[in-house]
């Protein structure tokens, strides 16, 4: 069997390599923000091949809880995981950032985002949760759900996002939804992140969800797109760890924003 990239690296070098991967959004600490999340693609890239890197075009109607947004520093992806809860990457928004979801030209819902308390000292906990100021409308088949089982090496993963599609990120396209299949190459000793090989996240895919898909087609979130080599490998912050779940439960109670798969009362959630 061919040895995966991460397995071939001595343990003492793994943290250095983790730090050298590229964060796929560009918001800087302390930056004031006023962003707008949208429930469907609005910036159609012209002349792109149907290939996340190595992926294919996704139908936004099949992913109605997947959002696209820009800040003054760049674009990212996010996911509705409850009637008042939105998940993205911490490096996509500043801690305490405010914004809105634009549901229609005349309907907007305010958002306020919070980082996981371990970020940025530990970049592997690259999570942000955003609370909505009013209930978001239910989507077809329900909001996306946090899975109950953490991924393991060899598992198949679906990556999705609104980012660029070419190795190196040279196309700089943003706004068309793409998805691709990857395989878990390794899981960190702390299980706070896993590395995938195959279809890879690119600039703009940050904050999008990584999914495990069961044989019946039901999908559950197992991580948040965080960083990668913009070619083959992606680093995903795992959402089924005590560090994430315990924080998410507290955030959910503090913000009256239940999360599908973690807290009851989240609204219409996808079936497991």
Brief descriptors of the model:
six-stranded antiparallel barrel; disordered N terminus; Thrombin, subunit H; 272 residues; single chain; mainly beta
Describe this structure in words.
By secondary structure, the chain is mainly beta. The chain has a domain at about 35-40 and about 65-145 and about 240-255: Thrombin, subunit H. Helices cover about 10% and strands about 35% of the residues. It has 2 helices and 15 strands. It has helices spanning about 10-20, 240-255; strands spanning about 20-25, 35-40, 55, 65-70, 75-80, 85-90, 100-105, 105-115, 130, 155-160, 180-185, 195-200, 210-215, 220-230, 235-240. A 7-stranded mixed beta barrel has the order 2-4-5-6-9-8-7. The longest helix has 14 residues, at about 240-255. The two termini are about 35 Å apart. Mean pLDDT is about 80; it is low at about 1-30 and about 40-50.
């Amino acid at each position: 069997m061919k040895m995966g990239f991460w397995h071939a690296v001595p343990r003492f070098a793994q943290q250095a390599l983790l730090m050298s991967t590229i964060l796929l959004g560009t918001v800087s600490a302390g930056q004031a923000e006023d962003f707008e999340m949208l429930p469907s693609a609005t910036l159609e890239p012209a002349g792109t091949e149907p290939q996340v890197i190595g992926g294919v075009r996704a139908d936004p109607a099949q992913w109605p809880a997947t959002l696209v947004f820009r800040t003054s520093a760049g674009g990212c992806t996010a996911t509705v995981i409850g009637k008042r809860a939105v998940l993205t990457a911490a490096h996509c928004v500043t801690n305490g950032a405010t914004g809105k979801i634009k549901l229609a030209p005349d309907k907007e819902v305010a958002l306020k985002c919070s980082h996981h308390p371990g970020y940025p000292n530990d970049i592997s906990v690259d999570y942000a949760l955003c609370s909505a100021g009013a209930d978001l409308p239910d989507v077809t088949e329900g909001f996306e759900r946090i899975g109950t089982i953490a991924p393991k090496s060899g598992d198949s993963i679906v990556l999705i996002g609104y980012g660029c599609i070419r190795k190196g990120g040279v196309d700089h396209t943003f706004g068309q939804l793409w998805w691709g299949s990857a395989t878990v190459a390794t899981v960190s000793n702390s299980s706070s992140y896993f590395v995938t090989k195959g279809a890879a996240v690119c600039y703009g895919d940050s904050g999008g969800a990584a999914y495990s898909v069961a044989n019946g087609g039901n999908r559950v979130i197992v991580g948040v797109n965080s960083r990668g080599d913009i070619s083959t490998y992606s680093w995903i912050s795992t959402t089924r760890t005590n560090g994430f779940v315990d924080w998410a439960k507290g955030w959910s109670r503090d913000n009256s924003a239940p999360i599908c798969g973690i807290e009851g009362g989240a609204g219409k959630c996808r079936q497991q």
